[in-house]
Amino acid sequence: MTGIIGRSPKSANFKKMDKRYIFYILSLILFFVFISQISFHNMDTFITLFETARVFFISLFSGISANMNLDIGIKIALGYVFIVWAAFIIWVIKDITNRTTNILLQTLSIFIMLFFTPLFGLPIYLLIRPGTTLFERYYEEEEVEETIDDVEEFYHCPGCNHKVSRDFKFCPKCTLELTISCPSCKKKIHTDWALCPYCGEKDIVPKKDVKKEEKKKKIIIEEKEEEIKDILVKEKEEKIQKDNQQ
After folding, report:
1. In 180-189, which positions are buried (b, 16+ CB within 10 angstroms) versus exposed (e)?
2. d(CA 180, CA 191)
């Protein structure tokens, strides 16, 4: 495809991706600015809260694992479920980033898979995700642009319906003259037009050219008639030879 040479989907979507990275950087800057404005006393309070939360979750999971009398097989099955869950989360992250640059939709998709588990989250994600990837949309747009360029650059010869360029003066298949100069404004126009779109001249095809075309048509008709006569004569001679042989 001619429109794709020298370009890539990554370069085409650079501005959208750049906006997303700018958003991430600004969020980090605001976070560090907020942290820098906190006094040391408040900082100690935050550290204490984080440490309390960490100890709480560690004690919670250790208590569950100690009090639950589960067989090794069940524990392995649960571990396998969590591994599959994590794999689905990673797949969703890769898939949604390949399908859209909308940060809100990306975040929503990841949180759906986190909180609703793959059993319920995956069907919801498949419903809300975009139907095509960024690469597919890029190539579809390129194909549409190429078809528009082809329509604008080419058209069909009025004589033989062969596809020709608009720059051609003669059809390479039937030798029909495709473009002439308007006798009034001298601009390039097509012979199958009813009038000149630039000056409104109606007599755009010279009479000499019309006569030449009529002569050509007569010559072609005469040649075809002669060919038909020759074919009929040959068929008659072949029949006579067959009759004589019999």
Report:
1. bebeeeeeeb
2. 6
Interatomic CA distance for residues 9 and 18, integer angstroms:
14
Q: Cα dihedral sign for 205, 209, 211, 216?
A: negative
> Which pTM value belongs to this model?
0.36
Contacts of 184 (CB under 8 A, 6+ apart): 196, 199, 201
CA distance 46 to 64: 27
Q: What is the DSSP string of 155-220?
A: EE-TTT--EEETT-SB-TTT--B-EEE-TTT--EEETT-SS-TTT--S--S-HHHHHHHHHHHHHH
Q: Are 91 and 103 in contact (CB under 8 A)?
A: no
**Span of 31-35, 57-61, 71-75, 85-89 with lowest mean pLDDT:** 31-35
Q: What whole-number distance in Å separates Cα of residue 128 and Cα of residue 110? A: 12
Token pair recorded at residue 145: 């642009």
Nearest C-alpha neighbor of 181 from the set 166, 196, 192: 196
DSSP characters over 52-67: HHHHHHHHHHHHHHHH
Residue 154 has what DSSP assignment?
Answer: E
Q: Kindly report, residue by residue over 216-245, the tens digit of the pLDDT.
A: 777 788 887 888 878 877 877 777 777 777
